[in-house]
Fold these 4 entries.
Entry 1:
Amino acid sequence: MTLARELARYAITATNAGIPAAALHEAKRSLVNWIGCAVGGSTHPAVDKTIAALLPFAAGNQCSILGRHERTDALHAALINGLSAHVLDFDDTHLRTLLHPSVPVASSLLALAERQPMNGRDFLVAFIVGVEIECRIANAIWFAHNSHWYITGTAGVFGAAAASSRMLGLDEDQTTHALGIACAQAAGTREMAGTMTKAFIHGRAAQNGLLAALLAQQGFTAAESSLEGPHGFANVLAPERDLKAIAAGLGTTYEILQNSYKPYACGVVAHPVIDACIQLRNEHQLRAADIERVALRVSPRALELTGIQSPPNGLKSKWSIYHSAAVALVDGTAGEHQYTDERVNAPEIRALRASIAATADAQLKEIAAAVTVTLKNGKTHTKVVEKVIGSAENPMSDGDLENKLRGLAQGILPEARIAALIALTWRVAELDDVTQLARAATPE
Amino acid sequence: MTLARELARYAITATNAGIPAAALHEAKRSLVNWIGCAVGGSTHPAVDKTIAALLPFAAGNQCSILGRHERTDALHAALINGLSAHVLDFDDTHLRTLLHPSVPVASSLLALAERQPMNGRDFLVAFIVGVEIECRIANAIWFAHNSHWYITGTAGVFGAAAASSRMLGLDEDQTTHALGIACAQAAGTREMAGTMTKAFIHGRAAQNGLLAALLAQQGFTAAESSLEGPHGFANVLAPERDLKAIAAGLGTTYEILQNSYKPYACGVVAHPVIDACIQLRNEHQLRAADIERVALRVSPRALELTGIQSPPNGLKSKWSIYHSAAVALVDGTAGEHQYTDERVNAPEIRALRASIAATADAQLKEIAAAVTVTLKNGKTHTKVVEKVIGSAENPMSDGDLENKLRGLAQGILPEARIAALIALTWRVAELDDVTQLARAATPE
């Protein structure tokens, strides 16, 4: 039996009863986070431009664009809602692999739900199944793969295909082929960091997976050996890999339990620096005018990914550990409003950014950092962070996630609707019609 | 200046006057071949299934599906016509790189032409420009890339993006970004050989390129360094590469002059064996019943790509040098009717296929072969082919290409329309409205 068939069999036979309560709850937390990010991202220029380009190609208005008045068809909704949910770099992260689990799976599933009836329990199980499959494929390949590829663009498409296949009622053969068609669309290299195309790669994973399932539904064929074949996914895209990780414990362990949520709107490797800066600021009442210089000690990988010293715009600033440290010290936070073109060019942020130096320390864990602030009066303060907020070791609470959604949706959805959206998302498993979620996430 | 910018500048500034007559004529030959393949492929089950899956997502009926009654929007037309034009494995080949030049570029351009007015001369120049760009990128990377990837899926998308950008009137910045968005969609591994997904990868290159240009038109951003950057196309997808090949002689030499056309409906590496078998059959009046055994000597690469001994269906039989030899010896040809499920299972073909052995000979050129037939009466006949029909050294004539189109369109288009289609395609540069081509390629 090929790996794709093994995953396909799991995807269509998994049941609600077999899933532990903790996994079901974590899935709801993921959805609260995802839908907030999608609404919050919906006013970004990248979304405006995508809608302007693609609305002429919308086949009807069956599906919601979260946070917006416009409507579109299911394939475009999967892309646009996925792009929107990722464009702030604020969505969830499977920390081991850096895959962003919800964007491909939730964006394709909710779009499909507006096309055909789907109750909330089925939606939730399909979501967990899709996340499981993409994360397991990511577990097998992330080692060297992540240096070059966006793993959500490459592995995420399988999650979207599996979840969509399940909700379309495909059989094992069809689902196996859907995973093969997904494989043929695995794409997206890291050169696109700091451009709108990064978010496009993530949204496209949702759309590509849904498309794969729609084609497979008609009997379209692909290679069964898409994952392990000599010219298949792992051999071609992953110089190092551990294929055994894909199916080991399938249906017993749950990758959704490893999901993490960002308190800060940027790449997760920058988060320990931000944590440390906010703690130092608050403990010592630091003001930018008092700071002489700041020294960051981070993992080599963090510096590789976020080493932009003078970011030219908001999107690029998410990949600047210097900018993240500066806004954390000045604003005491690092939300979506800290990574705008305006904040990047603010004089006090520019000045402080220029006084920050970073060094790579191979002794540090990937998600850890030490920050030393030297004041003009000669005093120094140091903070080391090893358990970053949002990680499984130091998780955001359910209330933190609600507050995050509230902040993201503010000014985009009416207040009453935000409250309803939060309540509905926690109750997703009880909804007869999951499109209620989509309706609550649009401004009437 | 980045490579993408250099290509973008060329893409939008090239003029009809600068292109040699031979290149203009070769482009017309390419279009005759492409449109015939698209019409001929349009009745394939892979096209039926794609239309069934995607027609519910068509935004209107502005664009033709070649060879069919159904109509769709430009993005879907680019995919479906591209898939259709490749599904018989009968389309053109840039022999050095094995890229199939016309599918991405012509399929995206004709779809766009039905969306906005375009005269034939502009269409032809944009086609040549798109082919130039995809083939030059392919020239830089094909060496090791081709073992794993379908180069039309990876490099072809840049050709479609460049040609579409030109016809949308994008400026240099926008076109540079379009090439970046194209890069983010480069995909398609060789594991899909012999499945419908192979043709999907090729059609998707056309659609992905058009989508890239539509997004860039709205100001959507991508990395300028998409081709040569540390996490860009070449570094990630091509372990060996020669980036200098991309821009050397740009605007002076023309890759379209290296295009080749298939007399046989299968991978080009099998063609010398087919040539040799047809010659032996005709010279010695061979009949299957008289043949004891057949020995094929081919390049190692040909055997790697076409080594399926007992193909299970028509699509897989295109990757069986044994099947190709058997139909060539029995039928005296290897057109689209030789690679059907029915022909694969015909008893006389099965029996002959089982008597054929192939060996790899590293001394042979990639596109060369020797065939020895041993008869039941003990006689042997050998034929060596080094200049295969359809190559630049032994090209199909304009008349051959017309006959190929005629054969492909028979039974799909009315006779009078086939004649009109051929005449219109040769006159493409004189057409005020290139949609005449699309109309002539549909059955009213």
Note: The domain at 268-385 of chain A is CATH 3.30.1330.120 (60s Ribosomal Protein L30; Chain: A;).
Entry 2:
Amino acid sequence: MSAFGISGLAHLFGVLAIILLLVWLLHYREGIEFDSDIGFRVFNVHPLLMFLGFIFLAGEGMMAFLTIPGKREVRKFVHMTLHIVAIILGIVGLYAVFKFHDMAHIADLYSLHSWIGIVTFGLFGLQWLFGFVTFMLPGAQGPTRATMLPWHKAGGRALLFMAVCAAETGLMEKSRFIGLKPYQTEINLVNFTGLAILLFGVSVNIVVGLR
Amino acid sequence: MSAFGISGLAHLFGVLAIILLLVWLLHYREGIEFDSDIGFRVFNVHPLLMFLGFIFLAGEGMMAFLTIPGKREVRKFVHMTLHIVAIILGIVGLYAVFKFHDMAHIADLYSLHSWIGIVTFGLFGLQWLFGFVTFMLPGAQGPTRATMLPWHKAGGRALLFMAVCAAETGLMEKSRFIGLKPYQTEINLVNFTGLAILLFGVSVNIVVGLR
């Protein structure tokens, strides 16, 4: 199977994860609404936007040089744009969880999930800025770009990996928080969602690693 | 900084994670003993051996082609041996958690942590077998090896990534299980352990990604 074939698998796992997340949040949980008086509906914005932004769009952005037809400049623009959209969705998703904590009087930033998440968000922003300054602005010269490219790629792969760790720990935290019991339907749904997210991350990693 | 410099950081984060894990399991928790009548002492074998095997030794094995002086054959032997030791430690570590579940009448394999862990363990074994047959046995020819190498590398990176996800979700599960409270010393210790494990995984990934 080629890198292009694996990118097909990546799309599949990504879309599967979105569907499973929506079934979970809309059917099993309270629904998704940023401006609700019900704290859990506000909270549910968080997992959806963090996955859509930091994992799905960022992953698709990483594969854009392979999967988008057209000139290199077009692919690069799509790559950069998907990542800035990821950051915007991430800001809204993070705002939602702090808003929920405020509504429900829950402490902020004490769990491993929150630590991994906040470190990943910060480094992701730096990686985007670094990439924009080096590869989009006309300032950096060819040799500088050539030196920086492997670091940009390795950093991007590491960040996707950290974002997936944040998602998996987040799903664990929520499963425990709502007291899911062994083998019940909802915990299996959450676990399959986690596996789909993991396999999306793994597939994207293999696609960009093989190039 | 060179790939070799980053490998220094990787050793540092790896050793830091071992120290933090030992402080946690020996000082804050019940200690580590495979043949104990106290279930928690049996359980504590699990996090130690899974990290030592599947993450630390596997990660050191992945970097062996860069960090071990000597001929290519020596490096390759170290690479292969560290991975088989990882598998043996992994088997003992998995046995410990099933033994603990049996002693404490806890259900097996229902959490996202256990699902990620068991999938990773199975694929790790397959990757080792695949590597041994292709690269150690004299059967496979040069062109086959050259075709398989990028897949072996990409698969190995993906597996380290999955193993780190398993570790992080495991730390979350245990933190919740023992009811750690926000901002207390022990939860911060667990979180720093999780960050050290994550940074070890990230550094190894960058080292092998840059080569």
Note: Chain A has seven helices and no strands.
Entry 3:
Amino acid sequence: MNFGFDDTTAELRARLLTFMDECVIPAEHAYEEQAAVSGWSPPPLIEDLKAEARKRGLWNLFLPGAEGAGLTNLQYAPLAEIMGRSPSIAATATNCAAPDTGNMELLAQFGSEWQRKEYLEPLLNGEIRSAFAMTEPDVASSDATNISTSIVRDGDEYVVNGRKWFITGAMNPNCKILIVMGKTDPEAPSHRQQSMILVPRGTPGLTIKRGMKVFGYDDATHGGHAEVVFEDVRVPADHLIGEEGGGFAIAQARLGPGRIHHCMRLIGAAERAVELMCRRALSRTTFGKTIAQQGVVQDWIAESRVRIEQLRLLVLKTAWLMDTVGNRGAHTEIQAIKIATPAAVEWILDKAIQVHGAGGLSQDFPLAGAWAGVRSLRFADGPDEVHKRSLAYRELKKYMD
Amino acid sequence: MNFGFDDTTAELRARLLTFMDECVIPAEHAYEEQAAVSGWSPPPLIEDLKAEARKRGLWNLFLPGAEGAGLTNLQYAPLAEIMGRSPSIAATATNCAAPDTGNMELLAQFGSEWQRKEYLEPLLNGEIRSAFAMTEPDVASSDATNISTSIVRDGDEYVVNGRKWFITGAMNPNCKILIVMGKTDPEAPSHRQQSMILVPRGTPGLTIKRGMKVFGYDDATHGGHAEVVFEDVRVPADHLIGEEGGGFAIAQARLGPGRIHHCMRLIGAAERAVELMCRRALSRTTFGKTIAQQGVVQDWIAESRVRIEQLRLLVLKTAWLMDTVGNRGAHTEIQAIKIATPAAVEWILDKAIQVHGAGGLSQDFPLAGAWAGVRSLRFADGPDEVHKRSLAYRELKKYMD
Amino acid sequence: MNFGFDDTTAELRARLLTFMDECVIPAEHAYEEQAAVSGWSPPPLIEDLKAEARKRGLWNLFLPGAEGAGLTNLQYAPLAEIMGRSPSIAATATNCAAPDTGNMELLAQFGSEWQRKEYLEPLLNGEIRSAFAMTEPDVASSDATNISTSIVRDGDEYVVNGRKWFITGAMNPNCKILIVMGKTDPEAPSHRQQSMILVPRGTPGLTIKRGMKVFGYDDATHGGHAEVVFEDVRVPADHLIGEEGGGFAIAQARLGPGRIHHCMRLIGAAERAVELMCRRALSRTTFGKTIAQQGVVQDWIAESRVRIEQLRLLVLKTAWLMDTVGNRGAHTEIQAIKIATPAAVEWILDKAIQVHGAGGLSQDFPLAGAWAGVRSLRFADGPDEVHKRSLAYRELKKYMD
Amino acid sequence: MNFGFDDTTAELRARLLTFMDECVIPAEHAYEEQAAVSGWSPPPLIEDLKAEARKRGLWNLFLPGAEGAGLTNLQYAPLAEIMGRSPSIAATATNCAAPDTGNMELLAQFGSEWQRKEYLEPLLNGEIRSAFAMTEPDVASSDATNISTSIVRDGDEYVVNGRKWFITGAMNPNCKILIVMGKTDPEAPSHRQQSMILVPRGTPGLTIKRGMKVFGYDDATHGGHAEVVFEDVRVPADHLIGEEGGGFAIAQARLGPGRIHHCMRLIGAAERAVELMCRRALSRTTFGKTIAQQGVVQDWIAESRVRIEQLRLLVLKTAWLMDTVGNRGAHTEIQAIKIATPAAVEWILDKAIQVHGAGGLSQDFPLAGAWAGVRSLRFADGPDEVHKRSLAYRELKKYMD
């Protein structure tokens, strides 16, 4: 057992930290200003940062294998944490932003040669963006068997009908391709009914209807969270990813690394919140004491530190398990980090906000926005409660005869 | 001891419930549609509702004495709860919306004849709106001695300089008057330094700078939360409310009833959230069961009910104490409801959101917006932590020799 | 609505407080010393206190009607709170101790003339003690249909077989009678299977086997918590209470007032804990400050006060509902106080212990013992979780068509 | 970074698990029976187990260096967890029980040759037991400068006067030596006032006065928690450990490894609690479902697993830091595990108790006793609140100029 970073990770951490200090953090203010007028597109300065990151060898770090940076999950995880300190900018600048990351992994692993050339390549080059269309407004989508969008074979084409929402990134005009989950065979066994298919933006019948808000945020810099309607949308049969009935298995495979990324970025956000909380507490005085001298605030700071240290180790161990025994062997841990991380980071952000007074709620600090993002992750890939139930069942099974 | 409503309250509750059912709830959808295009002004339909409410004798219910409906705090409190089910519309329609309510109380109690005629009357008639400018961006405003806005006598005028923010309602063009807290004498004993003064919108040097957001919301239907700058703003000396040095005492007097109103409206919001949570839980199915059959969801519903019942009684008792022994005798309870209510209602709204899935975060349900409002109340009149410390000190004092 | 005490209550409160100050609190030390050598019997000094309480008109206060003090639930509740400050002594001294209270109510309401003469009279006179035998070690007894003790008619007798545990009071040699719940007809509809029967101590086949501990406490001053075995125990048929199949209904009727008593006593214990916490915090110094000056401790004190105030009101309203609309109309509230009170008081006691340092865990303060008692109430009449589920079901039912 | 066990650890874990299965768990029942009659001495069967453990090479595993098993903290930690499944027996049988462990480390590191020969040797051989006398009843002992016991040089002797309590192990007649913390120079700088001295049991003036209870438990199998009085207790000057004024530094050095041991044993206890909770939940049925099918119980099980996984990693990392950068470099983590572990394990044990119903509170299951032990650790080496404050201060210091 060894808790130190290996040389590759240490070197990349240093390089990424330098990039953050030199390029990302200094760009935050201008980014917000551009965002105020850039509509559903990302602020233009992001393109320069992408070029710079690529030049510095900080590109596609998330992607294992020859197509990416070739890092293990355990090596990438500490880098994702660093990006989490300024997640809107850093992840996009390094081409490590969701949902493209999961979509690139998926295409690298399951895409046909044609699909990889047409969509994976420009994604790897940061030329286009993509979306992943799973959640539906009309059913509890945490149960994949509820999914009602249909994908029906008709000659050389598939016809897609259905309604999806909270499709992150799809409001961005540069989002060129949607990966859509639907049912090809409602009569098959429950985990063989679903398939995934590529639907290019602009296909007739596809309507990007509106941006869903998360609390009051439209998250336009990430391309928002779209409601999308599919009305007799026809795509050639070669747009199906993998085989018919393979959708559920592909969705499962897509989950693991994404959880690591999300959780590590949240930990980075939590670290930044603790820093902001400390600085603010030291700088404000009430009733003759700095806020930092208030016992309750000290309690929050200590609790935050204690929780972050535990979370980070669990996420790193999960990454190590995925690298050494695979997603299946890391099943409990992958669920555990999904349960533990958003809840803890939400608590930390709440306390950081409280230390900032009313300003903490506003656009003048990154805390309320980060909070809304974390809160929404308590639903990502199904609400926490579904994951807890499944984890408990596995624990109980050890003692069933 | 008796936990039943008196006849006046019972009659008004019935009348108000009818108004909610017949006029308010049916208007919610159109209100949102108008809000999308009405900028910082309230949706126009509110004027019809105001006329209707007034016709039905549901007007200025919050205000004791001859100028208002003449109700006690204990009689008004259950009405505020009912308004809380649709707070944006119902409180405004009945001319019972903050911050006007506190401002009208203040003017009724401390205003000169001239001030009452000029500002209280149109407020009582619902013709204009008002704001209360206390919180400052540069200091921890929960400690009133920190306030740095200056109000300096210069001949027949006062000159106001300073910066305020989170001034609710001040973005609304119909907000005609601001009540501003500042220091007239920084050398006086700490609670005699502050005064309150009326500053009409449009006075030279007064800039309504921008709307502060709360978790992404601009709250434009309430007139937003403005940042306001005072640069050598001159008003005639008769605009001072009460006497020089009386600002702290007036602020204290203003607090009690407002807390009752806020807390009861939050309880109304919580009741609506429980209703939405139950209806949703009954209507969605995952893994072969309705969400209502999930034990964890049942636990949330039960906890919500248990917490609401306790909160309501504490707020009602506080109202009764204010009516019978006055604000000073109800000091502990007034702080207790401020500590307990937002925390509990925030928890209930969070669970209602969770039951709604991602939709609960969005503009399609009133839950996320209500949550942001409740969260911001953990800062109103000072953060919870300040109130807890003060309450604890009073408890400890019982045992000091 | 009115939150003041009526005259009867106010007078009895004053009288009882005097008794506490003059007789109960001063006896606590000697009580503990006698308890150390009195085995399963109560400390002898309790008999003098009983005589004194009776002389002062503080006797059977819990019992409505002519046989008792004739108080309503709402009138008795504040008296139970006062007793809760020193519950072992005060409740017994005034003949208001569980389980006798519930048993007396039960016999007053459902006992035959013979049963009342033989057992209710000496109980009312404080001459004997009694026990209530419901919980069984081998089944989840919160589901009454699980009860496996059998009561079988055989000619003029009933024959009882089964095993019970946590039968409070039964280790006390002066506990002369057990009220036993068992099944007379396992084939009847589920709520008509059970009956209750009187089993005198000393009946052949009845073995009082051992005292169950609660944490490390044997609770000998209350007569412990016995495991009791019934092996072909025969009692005359007239020992059945009410009718065959009436056991479940009698058990339900017994619940309401007992909940009020328990919860109010817990609130009294919580008030005493807050007092001890404050006094201790003021008297100890670490790192140059009293513990009372620590922000975290102030937070605990404030939270304790806020929770107590809410709980008390809910319990009092529940008592009022029982008096005005009966147990059935107060169903939600009766469950709510059972859910809320032990949880909150447990939290308060935990904090009071923490302020006392290691001593708080020990026999030198009443806190750890009180904590264990409260913790055990999270199981009384079924675990909290069962009550929450049932309460949630009632809430959901409002919205089912 | 690597989360696997090294070969030494893996081999010792296997060997210890075998010993647990073959010797410790099967002895639990007899151990409890002997404990009921063995007074303040440990149950006699422990001597056989000690011999067996020694034979199996499972002896003094906690002690680094040649005198012990030579393991690092990181290697020993997983073994302590295994012992924690049956802590009373396993730690004592392997001569790895507190407070001897800390005392042996202390003597190995700071003891003179004479002290090591006289006391360390028989301790290493498991022939005698020892105690560590720090906490005092009259002061808040978490602040070491409060300690009031005096150690005064008088010719060739030191004279000790003072009162200590919660001196674990000192009721055991086989506890032959006490290490006592007191002040040799109240005028010295605050961290140079204290010294440690050896006081043999039986020295005139030393009175082992009584056993303090912890939630009703006397913990007699560990030798209880004594109150000890020192009245002019004289010991030769060579009984001083290290130098005069070195007491604080020695106490600090003693802390680190002990924290690892305690925390890992608690994690072992938590694992056993989860196992018991699952088994019970699967075996009991209410209202037509097993308790394991209740959503709330599943939530507890999942939360328990999630918390345990995080805690364990943090404790292991702390051990690794102690091994690689020393106690000082691990300061934050050593405090973090002390804050996080007892709180989380207490929660888990509470839930396991709740699943067991009333039986969970009693002597029939190991849960309530374990709970009391964990609760008392929230005070060990100072209450959590002191550690949080100190940790927060270190965090804040990063941002102070």
Note: Residues 7-123 of chain B form a domain with the Butyryl-Coa Dehydrogenase, subunit A; domain 1 fold (CATH 1.10.540.10).
Entry 4:
Amino acid sequence: MEKVNLAAKFAHFKDHWSPKIIGELNGQHVKLVKLQGEFVWHKHDEEDELFLVCKGTLKMELRDKTILIEENEFLIVPKGIEHRPVADEEVWVMLFEPATTLNTGDAESGFTKRELDRI
Amino acid sequence: MEKVNLAAKFAHFKDHWSPKIIGELNGQHVKLVKLQGEFVWHKHDEEDELFLVCKGTLKMELRDKTILIEENEFLIVPKGIEHRPVADEEVWVMLFEPATTLNTGDAESGFTKRELDRI
């Protein structure tokens, strides 16, 4: 059992849209991801997803509105809700979600990552 | 669907050892709690528990060692592992754990909180 330092883990990688697993509990994963640019519209049929912004401002586009998530704020996107994360400048995010969650949900694309690194 | 600002939520309460629910997803709760002093030794038979320190330094006593968790660090305490959180000075913590989790686990005491506020 060892503690996890978020800054140290974020320093481990530079690539965008590629979540890294940094913890696992109760069938859920804790992941870090760096975002820049526009992701794909997608939804997760079975998983709610929590986005906690650690650095920068994340623009979460929903079909009916856009929510700006700033540092030390989080948003829970319930299952079934279409969303598109957009980062005009680089954003660092911590994710909490079931271990079964695929990053692109129902929208398989070049962004899809099936094998995630543990860092 | 609304974003949650951690600082604003922490400003909502002052009491210690009384977790507040600030989010729910996939059967898990996101909670905030302020700690000061020594808690009781306990374990959770069924739930892993994540402690993310938002302010201060949390001393997590385990039977074989003590782990100091600083700001922006987290520790996952697996189910079945006895632990005792100690805060020499006030510590602010975000918890991520199953909705079924009782704060004192198997050690019912004056610290036990069965009904948690949602803030």
Note: Chain A has one domain: 6-98.
